[in-house]
């Protein structure tokens, strides 16, 4: 699977980052299909990481009209890992490669559309919650 170019750290602990990520995904039209703790729990019983799997509702509907087998290969995945001092690293995986392998050209435009929505949701989270030094440089670039 193809890693998105968006990989960033935010100044929030894993549980808060997860909650805000869900909110941003839902705001963009995604349905969170599930979550897992791929690395189990740490010594304190807290998740060592959290992976969310989601799909963009309107895009998935259009893709299913193009190929009814669309299923799991149109899911986006995002992993949240705790970092030092209450921050979290977020990295997303887009559906582009799997959609190309399993759905061929019929699903390519839908995978690209879903990736754009996914990147937009992640970018809002990054812009709003990046560490202070990164946020000031990002705002300068965006201006």
Account of the 3D structure:
The protein is built from five helices and five strands, in the order βαββαββααα. Helix 2 runs antiparallel to helix 4 (about 105-130) and helix 3 (about 95-105) packs antiparallel against helix 4. The protein has one domain (about 10-95, about 100-135): TT1751-like domain (TATA-Binding Protein, 2-Layer Sandwich), CATH 3.30.310.70. The chain has a five-stranded antiparallel sheet. The longest helix is centred in the C-terminal third of the chain and has 25 residues, at about 105-130. By secondary structure, the protein is an alpha+beta fold.
Topology:
Blueprint: E1 2-10, H1 14-27, E2 30-36, E3 50-56, H2 57-66, E4 76-82, E5 88-94, H3 96-103, H4 105-129, H5 132-142
Antiparallel strand pairs: 1-5, 2-3, 3-4, 4-5
What is the CATH fold-level name?
A: TATA-Binding Protein
Strand sequence of the main sheet, in spatial order?
Answer: 1-5-4-3-2
Low-pLDDT stretches: 135-143
Number of domains: 1
Mean pLDDT over all positions? 79
Name of the CATH architecture: 2-Layer Sandwich
User: What do we call the CATH homologous superfamily?
Assistant: TT1751-like domain
Broad CATH class: Alpha Beta
Largest sheet: 5 strands, antiparallel
Topology pattern, helix = H, strand = E = EHEEHEEHHH
Class per helix and strand makeup: alpha+beta
- How many angstroms separate the termini? 33 Å
Spell out the key features of this protein.
disordered C terminus, alpha+beta, 143 residues, 5-stranded antiparallel β-sheet, TATA-Binding Protein, 5 strands, single chain, 5 helices
């Amino acid at each position: 699977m193809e890693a998105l170019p968006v990989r960033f750290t935010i100044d929030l602990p894993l549980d808060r980052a997860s909650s805000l990520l869900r909110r941003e995904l839902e705001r963009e039209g995604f349905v969170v299909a599930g979550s897992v703790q791929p690395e189990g729990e740490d010594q304190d019983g807290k998740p060592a990481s959290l992976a969310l799997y989601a799909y963009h509702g309107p895009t998935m509907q259009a893709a299913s009209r193009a190929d009814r087998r669309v299923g799991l290969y149109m899911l986006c995945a995002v992993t949240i890992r705790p970092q030092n001092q209450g921050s979290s690293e977020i990295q997303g995986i887009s559906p582009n490669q799997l959609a190309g392998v399993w759905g061929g050209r019929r699903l390519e435009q839908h995978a690209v559309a879903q990736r754009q929505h996914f990147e937009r949701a992640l970018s809002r989270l990054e812009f709003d919650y990046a560490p202070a030094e990164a946020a000031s440089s990002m705002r300068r670039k965006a201006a």
